[in-house]
Design the sequence.
């Protein structure tokens, strides 16, 4: 059986029959099988927007040999009489737990929030009434923050192909569309994720794992560099290994870890707002048409320098999506973006943020604890500005001109908007950088200046980073890992999942080396 990979140029609304016919014609084959390896939209010329499709073809009529495929991720199994506690059920926590259970450990996941069904119900109530629920919100609960933020599987590095393939296969097995394996910018959709994370949980439990919801870790008991117990209101959990994946919003957890001697450092992070436009404006700017057959909605990724060396960029763009109230606490007000699989909503939104260091915000050198307090104070400031979960907003032009307007505007945000001088509410250096960056974005994308800036976006990255040794363990500890977005080493579903898998494999490797398992 011969094999070859070819690249095809296809219309945006191509059919399976067209793909098959063009493949056979280009290779002059009568009998063959094929598989899409990569699919990306080429919209550089508005008069010639098309899909670039890479196809792997097998046929007895071909003489080429198939390329050597890298081996899949190996998880060595043996029965291990060791308990592991994983805190948090987001991508980092879940994929760490799945890896460890596959390796033969007795793995328990404890999650402070509700299961995905209960979480969705709490969020619905919150958006209808404004009543916040600490156990069921956009930040905490089954699947982590990513469950309700589009499910983008993009990553900025190719260094973790085996781990990424493991994650992708798990999502497809649980019901994700198979296209996530080959799309250049894959996404699952928050509607699909609600089903998928539940199916993944069932798979994990079917393998012997345990998941406990509404079980918040409040403390750790530590002896001579070993964590012995995770303390919760429901009781304490003993284990030989502890992997903590509390997410980017669990401030009280990080304060507790600092008190318990876990070492952190401050680092650059990003703060800004959500920017929202009618989706048709973005479609026109990117495609020259309000609709494009075969493509859901236009995306954008914009970068600038903010008038200096400070990066300003858009992040986590949600085509056809909604801006959502993603606070983790009743006294804070922050926003995020979400879209469903079809991306068919009227609006497009994206984070519009600038890089900053906690020391710059304070005007002096800060400790990790002070960095957390700074971000929390900013989130609480936005809540005080509206005395509710309404989101403060202004138009891009008002932000640039520093002019207040009381004009009402249409928005996808469910709890209402209140006009506010966002340029005064953000740190001054950041506001100046965003103003310079927005001027660049207005030149890069026609119609961008017509958008609105909404609320506070403070969760694109963490202001602190845990100190880890070469094995991934927290510095000074012999059985404690801190993983995922809150560790400061990951951001997004894929990189967080990879971070969790690698920590879990570190546990497996140390266990193999010790030779202590039965």
Sequence:
């Amino acid at each position: 059986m011969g094999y070859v990979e070819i690249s095809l140029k296809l219309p945006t609304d191509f059919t399976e029959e067209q793909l098959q016919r063009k493949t056979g014609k280009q290779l002059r084959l009568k009998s063959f099988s094929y598989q899409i390896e990569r699919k990306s939209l080429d919209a550089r010329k508005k008069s010639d927007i098309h899909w670039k499709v890479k196809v792997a073809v097998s046929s007895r009529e071909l003489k080429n040999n198939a390329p050597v495929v890298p081996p899949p991720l190996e998880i060595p199994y043996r029965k291990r009489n060791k308990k592991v506690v994983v805190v948090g059920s987001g991508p980092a926590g879940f994929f760490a737990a799945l890896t460890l259970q596959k390796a033969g450990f007795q793995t328990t996941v404890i999650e402070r929030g509700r299961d995905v069904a209960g979480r969705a119900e709490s969020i619905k109530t919150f958006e209808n009434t404004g009543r916040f629920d600490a156990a069921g919100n956009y930040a905490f609960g089954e699947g982590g923050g990513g469950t309700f933020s589009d499910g983008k599987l993009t990553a900025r590095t190719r260094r973790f192909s085996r781990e990424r393939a493991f994650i992708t296969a798990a999502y497809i097995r649980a019901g994700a569309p198979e296209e996530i394996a080959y799309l250049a910018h894959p996404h699952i959709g928050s509607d699909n994720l609600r089903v998928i994370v539940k199916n993944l949980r069932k798979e994990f439990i079917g393998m012997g794992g345990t998941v406990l919801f509404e079980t918040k870790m409040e403390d750790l008991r530590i002896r001579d560099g070993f964590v012995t117990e995770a303390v919760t209101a429901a009781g304490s959990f003993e284990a030989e290994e502890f992997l903590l994946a509390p997410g980017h919003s669990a401030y009280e957890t990080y304060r507790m870890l600092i008190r318990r001697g876990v070492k952190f450092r401050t680092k650059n992070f990003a703060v800004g707002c959500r920017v929202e436009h009618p989706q048709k404006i973005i479609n026109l700017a990117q495609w020259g048409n309000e609709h494009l057959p075969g493509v859901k909605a236009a995306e954008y990724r914009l970068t600038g320098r903010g008038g200096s060396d400070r990066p300003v960029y858009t992040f986590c763009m949600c085509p056809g999506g909604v801006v959502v109230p993603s606070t983790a606490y009743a006294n804070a007000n922050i926003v995020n973006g979400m879209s469903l699989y079809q991306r068919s909503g009227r609006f497009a939104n994206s984070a519009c943020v600038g890089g900053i260091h906690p020391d710059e915000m304070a005007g002096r050198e800060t400790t990790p604890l002070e960095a957390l307090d700074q971000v929390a104070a900013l989130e609480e400031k936005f809540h005080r500005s509206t005395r509710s979960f309404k989101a403060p907003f202004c138009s891009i032009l008002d932000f640039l001109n520093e002019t207040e307007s009381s004009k009402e505007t249409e928005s996808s945000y469910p709890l209402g908007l209140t006009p506010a001088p966002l340029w005064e509410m953000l740190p001054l250096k950041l506001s100046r950088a965003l103003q310079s960056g927005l001027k660049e974005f207005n030149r890069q994308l026609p119609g961008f200046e017509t958008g609105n800036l909404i609320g506070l976006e403070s969760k694109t990255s963490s202001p602190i980073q845990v100190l880890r040794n070469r094995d991934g363990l927290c510095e000074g500890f012999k059985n404690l890992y801190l993983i995922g977005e809150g560790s400061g080493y990951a951001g997004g579903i894929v990189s967080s999942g990879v971070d969790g898998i690698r920590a879990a494999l570190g546990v497996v490797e140390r266990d193999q080396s010790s030779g202590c398992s039965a």
Remarks:
- Residues 493-514 form the longest helix (22 residues).
